[in-house]
Amino acid sequence: MCLLPQQVSVVMNAGAAPSTYQLAWTKNTLADQWQHLKEYLVSWQGYFFNDRLVTTAGTRHTANEAFTRTTATDGAGNLYLPNVAANYESSSFDRISYGFVAKATPWLSGYYNYSENGRIPGTSAKLIPDNRLKPLHAGKGRDFGLMFNLLDNRLSARFGYFTPNSVNQSVTSGSYLNVGNRNDSINQALIAAGRPPANTVTIEGGNDDLADVDAHGYELNLTANLTPSWRMIVNASKSKVVTSNMLKAARSVAAVVVPTWTGLSAADQAISTGSISIAQEIANYQSWLAATTAVEGESTIGQRELEFRLFTRYDFRTGPIKGVYTGGGLRYGSSPVVGKSTAGAYFSSPANREVDLLLGYRTDLGLHLRKIRLDLQFNAQSILHQEDYTYLQIQANGQPSRVQVNAPPRYSLSATFSF
Fold it and tell me: What residues are paired with 309 via a beta bridge?
């Protein structure tokens, strides 16, 4: 069971007093939705030139029907599902993929792959301004490189280059809260003060939004059986991920309502929406927009350009500690960009460095004339635990807008019986 702390304190600068933020669970809402999904897949594989050329190809057709009944609110403010016809939306797409592996020598091969993908939108997350379903999330990618098999199959390696991209990728960004809910608050404050509303726009939907993503990078995968008892695995990648066309839904709605906010007189902008003025509501919207799109077209918030993982294991097969095995791993992620200051400088979170360890013992039990294998294993994960929290996003003024509480080190002891 995980207990959520009531608040978390974050120190922004050395020697400064910590900033305290209240935490709460996100509550689900009542909803009624279902989908009918149909998919057809055809694939093909071919071998040529004495199996020195292996080819693959495939095509997929996907069709989806989505039904949604939205909730209503009774006089007491309780949600319920009205007995009305469900909203209906349909979508379909076709995707292809193909690739090949060419064996130049017994130890050297080259490969190339191309694939298209698509994700049918879910029925629970809706977009502003009219509670519509998200469009199809579509993407495609290419990767190519070389594969090596050396030292009598004791060392295998793969080095490649990849270029994936996607359109209409779903992101949670607070679009309704910052545009729809803020628009309602401004209009209600004006009406309560006896002034005409800034606009008559009705905005419905959720806090999801859309963006496009392009990436490219290199990856290395290496598996080495150094001895019959010693095995090592290394994975490394260096990539650049750039997010563009962010907040497609929010920006299209904001283009309509924000000019009506900023067009209010100074006296009207001084009217309070409850705890802050309309002028401050506008400033808060602009701050959210700037923070959310700070690295648009340049990078992606939270993406670590360099990732490295190493794991090794050694089994003692002879001697007085026969059956004992031990191992461990290193994980590294470079410092990610988490925001951009008003001066144009990037904010970054610390690099991630973690260590995992294991120690085990394997033996055969001759119980009741039947062979039973026993594995006792102790695992220690994330034992460095360098930080209690990680900045996920920082605003232009240097204040964090998203912070992740890191899990503590984990220790476990397990026993496995194999018959």
Answer: 235, 331
In this predicted model, what pLDDT tens digit does every residue of 243-300 receive, in sequence order? 999 999 999 999 999 999 999 999 999 999 988 999 999 999 998 898 889 999 999 9
Separation of CA 347 from chain center: 20
What are the strands, taking DSSP E only, across 189-229?
208-227
How far is residue 109's CA from residue 156's CA, in Å, rounded to a whole number? Answer: 11
Angle at the Cα of 383 (from 380 to 388), degrees rounded to 5?
A: 135
Q: What is the pLDDT of residues 217-252, one digit of tens each?
A: 999 999 999 899 999 999 999 999 999 999 999 999
DSSP strand pairing (19-22 vs 324-333): unpaired
Long-range contacts of 188-195, Cβ-Cβ distance < 8 Å, separation of 24 or more:
188/273, 189/271, 189/272, 189/273, 189/274, 189/278, 190/264, 190/268, 190/271, 190/278, 193/268, 193/271, 195/268, 195/271
The answer to whether 258 and 250 are in contact (CB under 8 A) is no
What mean pLDDT is predicted for residues 321-344?
93
Distance CA 178, CA 184 (A): 10
Of 139, 126, 140, 141, the residue nearest 167 (C-alpha): 139
pLDDT on residue 10 = 64
